[in-house]
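Data card: per-record layout.
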Amino acid sequence: MAKYLISIVAVLFFFSNCFADTFTHRQTGKSFNGYATQIKRHNTTQVRIENKTRPQYLDLGDYEIHYNHLGRKNKVFTFSIKEPVDLICEAEAFEEAILLAADHGPLFILIEIDTSGGRIDLAKRICGAIIQIDNCRTVAFVNGGKFDGAYSTGAAIAIACDELYMADNTTIGGATLVSYTLSDLTNVRRRRVRTSRRPYGRPIVEKPIVPSRPDDDASTLTTYIAALAEKNNRPAVIAKAMVDESIEAIEVTEGGETLFVEGQNKKATQTLVRTWNERGSLLTLTAAEAVHCNIADKIVSSQRELLAVLDAAKAGVVRNNDCEKAKRGFGRARQDFNEISPAITHLKGRSEELNRELNMVESLTRGRGPLYGYRSYWYERDAIERQRLRNELLFTLDRLILNYRRAIQLANEYLDLNADIDSLVEGMNSAVAKFEEIRRRPPM
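The structure for this 444-residue chain is written out next.
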């Protein structure tokens, strides 16, 4: 685990120093405008150069690189994280789409966030995709909506971006006011819901995190979000207090400098200014407080104002819908799978019933075998019934196999279905074996 965390910090440090638009050769002084892509070849990186149709592969270590809008396309690619992060397909779509967007050379990538949190492992994948963008600025905008903020793992995603802006009525941190019905609360798996305080009749939901593996707990998120904060020169203790209730974040001054430290680490030479949260409670910041604590860069009222602040008022805004498409695709897949599952159960039961009837008829037919070459009426009747049962059984098994194949295909394509693929494969193989055995049975 320690080795893993060290590698995270190293990667964050490297990525935080790689933004570029104007390239100046360290030895020759020759410069040009353009942008680097994520495409690598050995020790070189593909660079798109202004007024050149073909990219070049350069060792970026040979250049002094300065970020600006020169050489970039006058576009801004936007992504939205507007619901709890709980689907693998959505995280996969985000990973792929943001890399492709960065390679198109936009002015920056804008990620609009309004979420109550979600699975830690998926949030880490999204954060990882963001910090891998070493050729384009990433900007988070907590713009409000259903949840009016970015909470828990959503806060980690916002902090992972190079810049963070918030609407005035939003908050960021570990707790938020969320309206839940009784059925909603019963469907929140493995979440810790605290309802002791009910302002405005709505429960406070703290740490809406859904771990998927034993190691994806709050402690790993604490270290991870601290590394994300330090990457962008944000106070790590404030970030940690958002996801770890054992952290008490305080603001102190020392030698005229304002610092944010853990309460237990306060020195005698430091003067306490404010206790931001007490141990046992998660830290949640308003937009103004987030700016004061250097978590957010600025408060803006809208996307239009944000674009103006970032000198992109005249840029074309390209909205990426890949995550939404992935969620819709999963919705259709879940509906198909929910229809296939009972069909498999029915066909499996029917095939077993037909197999028993067929075995019984064959046993009777053998007992009524022809005497001296003469086929009795009963023997002929049993032979006709046997053929009918055999054909119906083969047809049922064929349908069962087709349903198994479709279910396996969906389960492999959408891991969010949480289907037991091994069990499905075993069931299909059993059906195939039975189909071949029935088909090869000799005539009576």
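Known properties of this structure: Residues 1-19, 176-215 have pLDDT under 50 and may be disordered. The CA atoms of residues 296 and 391 lie 70 Å apart.

See the next section for split statistics.
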